[in-house]
Design goal:
Its EC number is 1.14.13.148. It comes from Algoriphagus ratkowskyi. This is Trimethylamine monooxygenase. Belongs to the FMO family. This protein is of the alpha/beta class and 463 residues long. The protein has three domains: 294 residues, FAD/NAD(P)-binding domain; 95 residues, FAD/NAD(P)-binding domain (3-Layer(bba) Sandwich); 29 residues, no CATH class. It is built from ten helices and 20 strands. A five-stranded parallel β-sheet has the order 3-2-1-7-20, with helices on one face. The chain has a five-stranded parallel β-sheet with strand order 9-16-10-11-12, with helices on one face. Helix 1 packs across helix 5 and helix 7 packs antiparallel against helix 8. The radius of gyration is 22 Å and the shape is globular. The protein starts with a strand and ends with a helix. The chain binds flavin-adenine dinucleotide and NADP nicotinamide-adenine-dinucleotide phosphate (NAP). The site of flavin-adenine dinucleotide (FAD) has 32 residues, from helix 1 and strand 4.
């Protein structure tokens, strides 16, 4: 009998979680389906695989990444730890709770390098279009091999969309912005704070990008940072040099006007106005249409597209939990594909979706949102054999993190948390975050080593 075929779109953390889930089943002695993952870039780990490029890449494809230099984890690493691959196993020593991007990228890669996951990925391959045949119950996926500029298509029984949703900018218009003389960019194109040194910077938005890009520019020497909010301010105790103001209404030349009647001159503007869920390779009836929120409609258990449950979406929620949530989702998705987890009827699925949607609507505070996503993770964990972890403890850490940020937005990354996977208490980092301008893995792991021994150690740590 022919093996089932599973196509995965994207080799970021979600797509890699799906590949890892199938490998885990194989290691447990189960014969899985044939799996192929398509990644339009030349390497895996997107978001975490920093690209200096903006606009388009080597082959003219839109740049996916919104990652920038000097980005440090904005939540404790203990809240995202894989429960089947700990930080201790990877780094062989305790590290701090808030590592920079290259260190997290290294960690993500460690787990998959242990398995032969790379063999399943076709890099430099863009998914152009997908269709579904009701009669054969198969997806046809049209692909472009970017390297040799060749179009071809393949058929699959299941399709996993793991293409991320923090890539296509939401770009609102503000009257007069076209005449603003300085630079105007979206957070998606922000690649580091260096260029804003000594400038007066206006940031629009009041979520994670606004907060982090604002603080980073302050840290790296911007003259002033103003954050302009639409619904509500971030509301932490800002240091002198950063302030929040109501929504921008319009520009007159280099002067920005705000809803409270105030105005000020700026040198540059960064729109931290979020992202669109965008699936240009899917026809309308298969597309997930949602805003960024903790429980997108139409997805049973947050993953199975209710109209067509062979179409599986991973990582489409707004995220407190990240890597461990993608894992928990990928394990359930795998079990469904392998026939170990049976889906209820469409009507029952709809009722379950409605229940989660109503609950999500009822919550407004950040703490309640953490509890909501915690309950969701617990539900996922009950449906597969992904190694259990103490989700309640993780929720407590998230709440402590929220408080830490409120108390001091410049020092919260100096705090230490305890792993729920190994019990290890995180190191206090060798340098306070505000004083650390170097985010390389070498500097992070081996601050005081000579150049030569540093090179040796880095070789050893590469798995
Ligand atoms: P992505 O990482 O976006 O990966 C999707 C992959 O799909 C990409 O490799 C892309 O190239 C590929 N792809 C897309 N379209 C196609 C196509 N048509 N054909 C083939 N391949 C395609 N999370 C944290 O836990 N901690 C943090 O500190 C943190 N910081 C963040 C900072 C920024 C600026 C952003 C934007 C996000 C951050 N996140 C953070 C959240 C982050 O989104 C997740 O950690 C994670 O990267 C999401 O993984 P993903 O695989 O779902 O999506
Ligand atoms: P987001 O959380 O979706 O927030 C979007 C923001 O844009 C909201 O504040 C929203 O305001 C605002 N907005 C949208 N349209 C607007 C308009 N027309 N006018 C004014 N404001 C508008 O997106 P994000 O902040 O880019 O975060 C995306 C992801 O990146 C998150 O997962 C985050 O964790 C991650 N991230 C992490 C780091 C890090 O430090 N590691 C840094 C950056 C980003 P309303 O509240 O009014 O809707």
């Amino acid at each position: 009998m022919n093996k089932k075929r599973v196509g995965i779109i994207g080799a970021g953390p979600s797509g890699l979680a799906q590949l890892r889930a199938f490998e885990a089943a194989k290691n447990e002695g189960h014969d899985g389906p044939e799996v192929v993952c398509f990644e339009k870039q030349s390497n895996w780990g997107e978001m975490w695989n920093y690209s200096w490029r903006t606009g388009v890449g080597q082959y003219g494809e839109p740049i996916h990444g919104s990652m920038y230099k000097y980005l440090w984890s904005n939540g404790p690493k203990e809240c995202l730890e894989f429960s089947d691959y700990s930080f201790d196993e990877h780094f062989k020593k305790p590290i701090s709770s808030y590592p920079p991007r290259p260190v997290l990228f290294d960690y993500i890669q460690g787990r998959i390098k242990k398995n032969n996951v790379r063999d399943y990925i076709r890099f430099d391959t863009t998914v152009r279009w997908v269709s579904f045949d009701e009669e054969t119950q198969k997806f046809t996926v049209v692909l472009d091999n970017l390297k040799i500029d060749k179009t071809y298509s393949e058929e699959f029984d299941y399709l996993v969309v793991a293409s991320g949703h923090f890539s296509t900018p939401n770009m609102p218009y503000f009257k007069g912005i076209e005449h603003f003389p300085g630079q105007v960019m979206h957070a998606h194109d922000f690649r580091g704070a260096d260029q804003f040194k000594d400038l007066n910077l206006l940031i629009v938005g009041s979520s994670y990008s606004a907060e982090d890009i604002g603080v980073q520019c302050y840290k790296h020497g911007a003259k002033s940072v103003t954050l302009s909010y639409r619904s509500s301010p971030i509301g932490v105790a800002w240091p002198e040099g950063i302030k929040e103001v109501p929504l921008l209404t319009h520009f007159e030349n280099d002067t920005a006007f705000f809803k409270d009647g105030t105005s000020e001159k700026y040198d540059a503007v960064v729109l931290c106005t979020g992202y669109q869920h965008k699936f240009p390779f899917l026809p309308d009836e298969m597309r997930l249409k949602t805003k960024n929120n903790l429980y997108p409609d139409h997805l049973y258990k947050g993953i199975f597209f209710n109209e067509l449950p062979r179409l599986i979406y991973l990582g489409m929620q707004d995220q407190y939990y990240t890597f461990n949530m993608f894992d928990a989702q990928a394990w359930v998705s795998r079990d469904c594909i392998m026939g170990k987890y049976e889906l209820p009827s469409k009507e029952e699925r709809r009722l379950d979706i409605n229940k989660w949607l109503a609950e999500n609507e009822a919550h407004t505070s950040n703490e309640a949102h953490v509890d909501f996503q915690t309950a969701y993770i617990k539900e996922l964990l009950s449906l597969s054999n992904y190694p259990n972890f103490n989700v309640e403890k993780v929720a407590e850490m998230f709440k402590e993190w929220l408080k830490d940020k409120e108390e001091n937005i410049l020092t919260y990354r100096d705090k230490s948390f305890k792993s729920v996977v190994t019990g290890t208490q995180a190191e206090i980092h060798h340098t306070e975050w505000m004083d650390e301008l170097n985010d390389t893995k070498e500097r992070y792991l081996y601050q005081e080593e000579s150049e030569e021994s540093l090179a040796d150690k880095v070789k050893v740590s590469a798995i």
